[in-house]
Amino acid sequence: MKVVSFFSGCGGLDLGFEQAGFEVVWANDNDPAVSETYQLNHPNTYLCKKDMRELTMEEIPECDGFIGGPPCQSWSEGGKQLGLDDERGKMFLTYIDFIQSKQPKFFVIENVKGILGDKHFQTFMKMLDQLKNAGYVVHYQLMNAMDYHVPQERYRVFVVGIRRDIDVNYQFPQPDNSCFIALRQAIGDITEEPRKYTSERVDTRYDKWLNHDVYMGPFDERFMARNRVRGWNEISYTMQAKARNCPLHPQAPKMVYVSRNKQIFRPGYEHLYRRFSVRECARIQTFPDGFRFIYHDVCDGYKMVGNAVPPRLGRAIALSVKEAFSHYNHETCSVLVATYRDEKQLRMTLENKLYYVRAGIRTGAMQFSLGMKAPRYLFLHKKDSFILFLLKEVEPRLVSASYLQNLGFNPSGEQYWTFELLDIETVERTEYVRKIVANHGGMKMKPYIIRYRK
Fold first, then answer.
1. Please, are residues 159 and 139 in contact by the beta-carbon 8 Å criterion?
2. Annotated catalytic, 48?
3. 3-state class of 76 per DSSP?
4. What is this structure's pTM?
5. What is the pLDDT of residues 83-127, one digit of tens each?
6. Which residue among the candidates 10, 63, 72, 281 is catalytic per the annotation?
7. CA 129 to each of CA 6, 28, 64, 100, 370: distance values in angstroms, whole numbers, following the listed order
8. Coil, helix or strand for 405?
9. 183-305 has CATH 3.30.1490.20 classification
10. Which residues does 322 contact at the CB level (< 8 Å), separation at least 6?
11. Fold for the domain defined by 2-173+310-325
């Protein structure tokens, strides 16, 4: 599948998609500090260096998917949190406009967890509604990179949208807690001393390790407010875009608490405290050793690495998209398999031409994403009784218990998804679907959806 990339940076997310078998045909980033690095490491991708706000739809090639992480500074908990009041924040809306206009089969958006905070959550939900109204089933999840074979604690929000006419069931990748990667495993073999820089021009000649350069600027009060050292058998703190905020190498002991918002280097060991080098940061971000970062100021090296999506995390997202599309078939049908309590409930269902299931996260509840299309059929069962309904092709509707009570139903929860019935299917069709349901795990009490080829 072909994808185009926005806010590409040095190409961490792009590399993850390439590793998963996608073809990144076109990328866009107008930061001159990243272009050489991107072009060197992605020779088969055309890099457009225009400001995305100046792009026309004709300049964006046809593709299967869009990927990109809009600037995070506007939403970051460590920044001013200006959101859409910041020009960088508005670029999120530009990206949404592109999705609305080009209608790719899928899109991926990455951003910081601050976008889920109280200050920005309503704005975030409105943007998701915009994507829903553009014709997409939208999923979002807060993910920690450490759960996907990345040796650092790094929380990021991912939004994945699948065009509504493509009937696939997308699922985010499951965390893999069996593969904890500590710092010793990640960077323990880099034993050479890094080359030290403050603001002078970086020497681009390297020996064994590319980009083994370390920023040696001073440590400010904010940096010294808490411990910045993780041990060899731990995962790293989050890689940062600013060189001065980079975590410290595990060769040094953990910092010593003095008072609230003040820690010091352990006396007698001050010489061991240094930041990770650019190459060590790249390792912790899961870039391969052959991925070369080109910069003249070492701070630009840290910025490229720190802003990137860890390729391994990007690959996990890419594989989940690939898995969803591997089941895509134009000739598939979906069936909601559920039960009915008694004859009274069945009668009310027939009279109102409406079936409901509990919403939320409690046992027996069903979760639907924004914009998800209703199943084609409803298969109701109770012991040896089976009824098949054709459903209206409209979105499931989220309603309150009081809404259902006014119709004569007797719900016991708070919120429910409703499905509109169109007609009762024939006995022959019902028996055909019954056999399919039996082959998919049988008649369960909890409602669930199956898909089958026509």
1. yes
2. no
3. coil
4. 0.73
5. 565 666 678 889 999 999 899 999 999 998 888 888 888 888 898
6. 72
7. 21, 25, 22, 12, 8
8. helix
9. no
10. 1, 20, 21, 22
11. Rossmann fold (3.40.50)
